[in-house]
Specification:
By secondary structure, the protein is α/β, with parallel strands linked by helices. It contains 15 helices and 15 strands. Helix 6 links the parallel strand 5 and strand 6. Bound molecules: iron/sulfur cluster. The site of iron/sulfur cluster has 11 residues, from loops.
Length: 379
């Protein structure tokens, strides 16, 4: 039986971070109703979900760590009564530093959480204030120490680089801090300006500088060199780890493993289809409360979509894109792209290792452009 992952989207946050366009609400007064609705969705969908070997559970959002210990324990208890978690190898919870307290850590591990992904984003108070984060650098540092004191060593942290407020020296200091604190996994994202966010408005009003692409590129290069110098596995453009600490759940998204997503805006993948829930808390709760079977929007992937998704995800990975696989799915693909690939090789943006096309460090920064050139048009 094919393995599967379970994603749970908790759509609440304490504050709206200025750069964020995820689905969440800062209004908290219907939290219990939402949690009941999500359990109802899971009951309805798990029965028919064809993949029962559950290997990973991932609580994301939003801010899952916002739940009080008793809320969390009630919710996780119900969830674990529906699914069989006996084969789960990785149970991750996204947590923000301000929520990492002894009683919560205890409740999380009691339910089986064995990995935390901490939204640190920066160790600079100026950066954090500009991003409207709910924590400061002192809380960020303490959150890692407390998690480790309580026995959770499998930690990942998120950091954002390329902000108008972060110079190269602070970025390098943050990377050193990771080593000093024995943190085995890092997700590092360049700041992007998404439409309709407070950051977007602030830039349009001339109150915030536009993030400088050159600075982001230089900080990405610093990151890549740091990984090489310290024997970290830079296994995906935005994800790096000490050997053997790759994120199991997120790797499923990249290697085509099916996953079930529960909660408003959550996405699922079952092989032929991508399925997504309504991104509206009120509509989602009413749907769950009245549903006898689950309705969601979906798209059946045609062969062209499947090939292009493979190009998009595989080029981001350190293993790269397999040309033999591409040829079997799209005959003549290599011949059609030979001139472009040779040009990119000559520019030092990629290499061909056996049958794998692997992006170089500088090529990784151009990944979107290279991907768009290699995609196939309708078969
Ligand atoms: S805590 Fe996370 S999900 Fe919530 S607003 Fe901030 S970045 Fe977005």
């Amino acid at each position: 039986m094919a393995p599967t992952g379970l994603y749970i989207h908790i759509p609440f946050c304490r504050k709206a971070c200025h750069y964020c366009n995820f689905h969440f609400s800062t209004s908290q007064d219907y939290r219990q109703r939402m949690l009941d609705a999500m359990i109802r969705e899971l009951e309805l969908r798990w029965v028919d979900w064809p993949f029962k070997t559950l290997e990973t559970i991932y609580f994301g959002g939003g801010t899952p760590s916002i739940l009080k210990p008793e809320e969390w324990l009630r919710f996780s208890d119900k969830l674990l009564n529906i699914v069989d978690s006996s084969q789960v190898i990785e149970f991750t919870l996204e947590a923000n530093p301000e929520d990492i307290q002894r009683d919560r850590l205890k409740a999380w591990t009691q339910a089986g959480v064995n990995r935390l992904s901490i939204g640190i984003q920066s160790l600079s108070d100026q950066d954090l204030a500009q991003m409207n984060r709910a924590h400061d650098s002192r809380q960020a540092i303490q959150s890692v120490q407390l998690s480790q004191d309580m026995g959770i060593d499998n930690l990942s942290i998120d950091l954002i680089y390329g902000t108008p407020w972060k110079d190269h020296q602070s970025w390098e200091a943050e990377l050193h801090w990771i080593l000093d604190n024995r943190i085995p996994h890092l997700s590092a994202y360049a700041l992007t300006v998404e439409e309709k966010t407070a950051l977007h408005h602030s830039i349009r009003a001339g109150k915030t500088a536009i993030p400088d692409e050159k600075r982001a590129e230089e900080q990405f290069l610093l990151l890549s060199h740091w990984a090489i110098a310290n024997q970290w596995d830079h296994y995906e453009i935005s994800n790096l780890c000490q050997p053997s600490f790759r994120a199991q759940h997120n790797s499923q998204y990249w290697n085509g493993t099916p996953y079930l997503g529960i909660g408003p805006s959550a996405h699922s993948y079952n092989g032929p289809q991508r399925i997504w829930n309504v991104a509206n808390n009120a509509l989602y709760m009413s749907q769950a409360e009245s549903a006898l079977s689950w309705q969601a929007e979906s798209e059946t992937l045609n062969p062209t979509n499947q090939i292009n998704e493979m190009i998009m995800t595989q080029l981001r990975l350190s293993e790269g894109l397999n040309t033999a696989k591409m040829e079997s799915l799209s005959p003549n693909w290599l011949a059609q792209n030979r001139a472009f690939l040779e040009q990119q090789m000559a520019m030092g943006n990629l290499s061909l290792v056996d049958t794998q096309i692997v992006l170089s460090t500088q090529g990784r920064f151009l990944c979107d452009f290279i991907t768009s050139q290699l995609m196939v048009s309708e078969l």
